[in-house]
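Format notes (please read before filing issues)

Several people have asked whether sequences and structure tokens are stored in separate files. They are not. Every record keeps both together, in the order shown below: the sequence lines, then the token lines. Line labels are part of the format and must not be stripped during preprocessing.
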Amino acid sequence: MDKRVTYHEQTDINNTIKLREVLKTLPPFCRDYFRAVEPTTTTKTRISYAYDIRIFFQFLLEENPAFKNYTMQDFSVDVLDQVQALDIEEYQEYLKVYKSGDKTETNGERGLKRKISALRSFYAYYFKREMIHTNPTVLVDVPKIHQKSIVRLDTDEVAILLDYIEHCGDHLTGQKRVFYEKTKERDLALVTLLLGTGIRVSECVGLDVEDIDFKNNGIKVTRKGGNEMIVYFGPEVEKALKKYLEVRKGITPLAGHEHALFYSAQRRRIGVQAVENLVKKYAREVTTTKKITPHKLRSTYGTALYQETGDIYLVADVLGHRDVNTTKKHYAALDDARRRQAATAVRLRED
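Then the structure lines:
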């Protein structure tokens, strides 16, 4: 019997092929770097780095007179020594708005930080191996990121959202009604699972039916970076999943998609974009002031868990954060009420 290729394994295969294609468009010496970072990065990260580093070389070709007669293939590792801190600062400025083919691209704080971080990592590799003598990227400050407040659903909004998915068909007619009935149990199971476990949308679409264990009420998810972990769920998630699995039995999937837990209308494994669209569609009916995405459902779960337990380490573990500081940054701000208690908890003098 053939070994089942999981969604994440298939994604890695596709990404590896894609990365090879992107590397062909970069200067030949770049391959050493990508080979070196392979053990410590995911395929998705390496593709992002390859795109980011390609933009840097495009910037040099377009904006730097010293390279006006160059093509991408003409660059050798020595070029990195010709770049100065001032060039990196100009590159940062360039990244805010630049042309890519016919498209105008822009970068906010996060985009800028990621691209400069990619360039720093790239330079560090060649500098450490003494293939270059200078590293101007360390002389330039990485853009500061301003934290945004967490957008999440309030408890009553969660209930309204789930009720809406369950009953909005009552107001529909014709084809819309038929389509809603067809996807209702799937959508309800999907949104209940996201809200009841806080898993990432990529982890959710990657689930196979074999990953559910109703004996222990757990699902096996593949976390960012490839680690597998069991995430447990409560009775509401169990009920929604079981109802959907009854419907799923009646679906004949396309070849290669037999194991997928959630199917699209085309009977394939549902994609990240489709989940984002359906969450957006339902959430719009519940709140117009909050832009709700699957990631915001994850924040909703994290917030509720932290408020219930006050245990930041538990929240970090369940959400699959490798560093508890990531969790603290997001959820410790919710602790205002507790901090107020601290003001009266310590008595300085007995009456």
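For reference, the curators noted about this record: The beta strands are 97-100, 103-106, 212-213, 218-222, 228-232. The chain has 15 helices and five strands.
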